[in-house]
Task: inverse folding
């Protein structure tokens, strides 16, 4: 599991920032295990492909920038870090892509399987508790070891969207099966089953291109389908039969996005280097 990129079948990845807890707790999924072998190489610049995912014995990423790798390790969102959510990356970190293969010992494969197989509901609970998962801690360790990454969280004032209930009322359906669920994200389409509203807010942040803060007061889990013109979040394409993003949120979900200012956590990069040789 990390961000929805890993945890939801590679369709997008998992918002909300965590901070350390004063009490020692077992991370969701279990304690992290050590990497037995890690290989990191710059991606062939002629390659236009990118992919990522968990394997039974580790992770395999291809064509992923450092910001994406940091997102998998640190970002508590269903989407990778936007540029306004991370500060201090050097220019090379924004242009170089990497192929990363990391493996655990055979004896640790079962433990890793549990770490990387959290359900959406378990992930939602972990993020609500502001707690890093075991696999995220493993990826943080990888970045610290190979990129010498050091980072910390700081609050920053940002323009955000407040998510509220529209005058028309909620148009999503209460979950048919609130104990199980999942989400998918493709260009111009978001859908989910058994999803709590704070998690829906984190999904909406990607097409909105801002942090979305849940101010609905809704506590249930919902099934929903949202479709909109992917070309623009402000105005539907003249040739598209789909509404613009904001209209779709209001008409199809019964929710409203209102622009505001708020303090949000931003990851500040204190130190990072190009990866050490294999």
Result:
């Amino acid at each position: 599991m990390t961000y929805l990129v890993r945890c939801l079948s590679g369709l997008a990845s998992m918002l909300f920032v965590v901070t350390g807890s004063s009490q020692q707790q077992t991370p969701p999924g279990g304690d992290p295990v050590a990497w037995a072998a890690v290989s990191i190489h710059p991606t062939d610049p002629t390659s236009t492909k990118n992919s990522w995912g968990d394997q039974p014995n580790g992770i395999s990423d291809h064509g992923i920038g450092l910001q994406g790798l940091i997102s998998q390790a640190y970002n508590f969102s269903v989407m990778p870090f936007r540029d306004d959510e991370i500060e201090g990356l050097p220019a090379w970190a924004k242009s170089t892509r990497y192929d990363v293969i990391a493996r655990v010992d055979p004896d640790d494969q079962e433990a890793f399987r549990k770490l990387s197989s959290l359900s959406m509901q378990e992930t939602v609970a972990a993020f609500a508790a502001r707690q890093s998962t075991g696999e995220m801690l493993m990826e943080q360790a990888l970045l610290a070891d190979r990129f010498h990454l050091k980072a910390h969280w700081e609050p920053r004032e940002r323009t955000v969207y407040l998510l509220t209930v529209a005058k028309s009322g909620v148009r999503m359906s209460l979950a048919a099966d609130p104990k199980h669920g999942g989400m998918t994200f493709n260009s111009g389409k978001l859908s989910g089953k058994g999803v709590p509203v704070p998690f829906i807010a984190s999904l909406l942040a990607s097409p909105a291109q801002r942090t979305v803060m849940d101010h609905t007061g809704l506590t249930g889990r919902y099934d929903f389908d949202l479709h909109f013109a992917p070309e623009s979040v402000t105005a539907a394409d003249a040739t598209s039969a789909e509404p613009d993003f904001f209209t779709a949120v209001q008409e199809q979900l019964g929710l409203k996005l209102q622009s505001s200012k708020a303090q949000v956590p931003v990851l500040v990069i204190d130190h990072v280097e190009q990866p050490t040789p294999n």
Remarks:
- Residues 158-263 form one domain.
- Residues 1-23 have pLDDT under 50 and may be disordered.
